Amino acid sequence: MTATLEAVQAPAAQAKTPKRPLWPFKTAPVRVFAPVVVFVLVIAAWAASSHLLIPEASRFLLPSPEEVLAEGLLDAVARTEILTALWSTVQVALVGLALAIVLGVLFAVVMSQTRWAEYSLYPYAVVLQTIPILAVVPLFGFWFGYEFGSRVIVCVMVALFPVITNTLFGLKSVSSAEHDLFTLHGASRFQRLWKLQLPAALPAMISGFKISGGQAIIGSIVADFFFRQGVPGIGRMIDVYRQRLATEELLTALLLSSLVGLALFWCFDFLAGRVDRLHGKR
Amino acid sequence: MSIDPALAFNGVSLTFANGTRALDEVDLEIRPGEFVSLVGPSGCGKSTMLRLAAGFETATSGTVDLASDHLGYVFQEASLLPWRTVARNVELPAELAGVPKAERRERARDAIERVGLAGFEHHRPAQLSGGMRMRASIARALTLRPEVFLFDEPFGALDEITRQRLNEEVGNLFVRDGFAGVFVTHSVPESVFMSTRVVVLNGQPGKVAADIPVPFAYPRDPELRYTAEFAELASEVSAALRGAKQEARA
């Protein structure tokens, strides 16, 4: 070595990136304790309303938490019924979400590549978001039948837009200096997309997936509520319980579907944390 | 002159799409072994000249001739990809050019060593100081073995001590590699310390207002900054710059 830039002091102490635990919730006390407090308060308010505000005769309007637990979750027949329906709903939602992610990213990539593609496609992506889903669901039934496939299509439809917008936003968030860098080194269109735009877009994409996850579950329930064919899902059970005035089961079905949504959200949140760390944030 | 210029601007004018005239009939030649600083008021088109040389912009009229395609470019910000380690960032140009993995690793290691970042290969940009990020950015450009090396105001955001040190070290690289350097800066002392020539532009549109040779030999001692000769040249550049500014205002 002849002339060199003088060495920066050797990084003895920080030569290794400090290993962070895989489990991201190390601030567990607050992150777990706070939601638990809220949960207890909500349950208390619910129990109080049920016992104090509603007369015994019309208790079915709002059964108390312990009744819901006993008849919805602890009762073997009801539990099996609800969990089977939930599994059907989740399957539809997950397949729909996966398709929405693939299609949405694909659309966004196409739109990011040429201006005319963006101009010609984007308005329809917005239309997709603003169409009243309740009006379209029966049409899908006419066109595609009333079973698994149609339910998935409804999920894709409601989950697609957040994926498209967030991915497109992420792909376009690349700074002009980074683009110049790739131009300087003669990067091909594919190299620019694969090595620059997509990695840069990843955090925004995952925020899109988070929204889409919840949407897909709602879509799955709504579709099933309307189509009422094939393996019954939560949507159909909700309708059945409504007719039976079985509020305990109805509430159980609702709570369990929200739990699934929450779990999905956490998965993406965990993924977002990993990506942020990869990008040197956090 | 005997040697062909490494980089030549021949009557270059540039008008942007929005009608802004950035450069007006600029003639400038930079020969191998020259290190030319471009100084001038904000918006005088200094950076635009580098962007033209790199092919990011196209001249409206006139020509920009590069003698070599070994072009190094250091951006205003380090512009490292945050998800890549230092080593992978430095490898990027060779990777885009399709250089086999083993060779580009080797080149990256060598470049990282030369900028004094050995031991930081596996750090991510967010874990580095501003000065170290700039070193990584310089290493990235070094992997191409540049014959023309363009610096677009690279040290503007750094503290004074870091900046001076990097000035000295880029000087060392220049001595060893003998590339043709073009260095855009706002700082008069930096321009005098680094260069064989200081070119003052006035704006707008940008035009060459003064071309001041700097006779000090390389390698330059950091103490050069505190000599009377240095102060005299710096004041000459300052005066030219003031003149350029007044003209720009008029």
Structure description:
The complex is a heterodimer of chains A (282) and B (250). Chain A is mainly α. Chain A has a domain at 61-169 and 207-278: Orthogonal Bundle (MetI-like fold). In chain A, 77% of the residues lie in helices and 0% in strands. Chain A has helices at residues 28-53, 65-74, 76-113, 115-130, 133-144, 148-171, 176-184, 189-227, 234-244, 247-278. In chain B, α2 crosses α3, α2 runs parallel beside α4 and α6 packs across α7 (228-249). Chain B has two domains: 1-64 and 157-250, P-loop containing nucleotide triphosphate hydrolases (Rossmann fold, 3-Layer(aba) Sandwich), CATH 3.40.50.300; 71-145, no CATH class. The termini of chain B are far apart. Chain B has seven helices and nine strands. In chain B, the strands form two sheets. In chain B, strands 5-6-7-3-8-9 form a six-stranded mixed sheet, sandwiched between helices. A three-stranded antiparallel sheet of chain B has the order 2-1-4, with helices on one face. The chains are: A mainly alpha (282), B alpha/beta (250). The interface between A and B is large, with 34 and 44 residues.
